[in-house]
Amino acid sequence: MTVPRILTDDTTLDVDRSDTDYEAWLTEAIRAVDADAVRSADTHLLKFPLPIGWGIDLYLKDESTHPTGSLKHRLARSLFLYGLVNGWIRPGLPVIEASSGSTAVSEAYFARLIGVPFIAVVPRTTSAEKTRLIEFAGGRIHYVDEPGAVYAESARLAAETGGHFMDQFTYAERATDWRGNNNVADSIFRQMKAERHPIPAWVVTTAGTGGTSATIGRYVRYPRRGTRVCVADPENSCFFEGWRTDDPAVHCATPSRIEGIGRGRMEPSFQPGVIDRMMKVPDAASIAAIHELQQRTGWQAGGSTGTGLWAALRIVAQMRAAGERGSVLTLLCDGGERYADRYYSPDWLSEQNIDPAPYRAMIQELLDC
Predict the structure, then answer these.
(1) What is the CATH topology of the domain spanning 72-171?
(2) Topology classification of domain 42-65+178-361
(3) In this structure, are strands 277-281 and 228-234 parallel, antiparallel, or unpaired?
């Protein structure tokens, strides 16, 4: 056979970087991450007890039932798939994340699933229970003394090791397919179909990266559902002020006491334009809400759940005062057992000068009148 001249032409630059061993590893890694989603049942949609005559229903989407115990399981799965298909995660090299806990727990799980090392860069103030869970899932802890140093230290470790800095605070809003594909918003609306008010008037979320509010906000706008999105922000966080003033440069020097949410800077994944409303929630109100949640339902949740629940209850109260009917939904982000030494500890609350009692009284006044 005559060799075509196009194959012998030496003026064409041609570099082939394909690696069959890597492609085989990548195929298996993606399969393993996808299989986790198929293997896991959807999370429960719980109904908070309100008087039926109000015509208002309040729900909590219980994300604590994921294999790694929090809403961040969905984010970690999306971030790993995003990193894999982009060629950023490579066999044998570490994945590194800046995290206060729950994201790192979930990412450690997925790293072990595909057989790569995982390093969590966390502030020293992170709860001992969360660091234990990260290590139990196969991760290694790398502490920093200054919470704001987690970003630069993660990037430094990635450069030093040849690994990949996952950077949830940049990629959370783009790694998730907001149009569907069983994201949290898609799951919520499928589960609400049989309820008496199937289209929520409000979905209340909180913000750590901003990825969840971005996903839900985009999802409800795309088919013009009419649902509005409220983000509840704790003390010592800049998201509320940055959203209110439309200033991406705002900062907050004091770290949030509500783990997993609240940031000292406006994170790249936080998308103000998809948010209809924000509330600044006192930390004592967040703690009061989870204590009252446990008292009335037996469900024990983390502090971020309390932040969202307080905001949801305010919306319920406003709807009732206005004679409106409908449904409100918020997230049960993770379980309270991770915070036994904090939000459920009288000693810790006293040390932090947090008194939930006045806010519990407000909740009781609303629910028991």
Answers:
(1) Rossmann fold (3.40.50)
(2) Rossmann fold (3.40.50)
(3) parallel
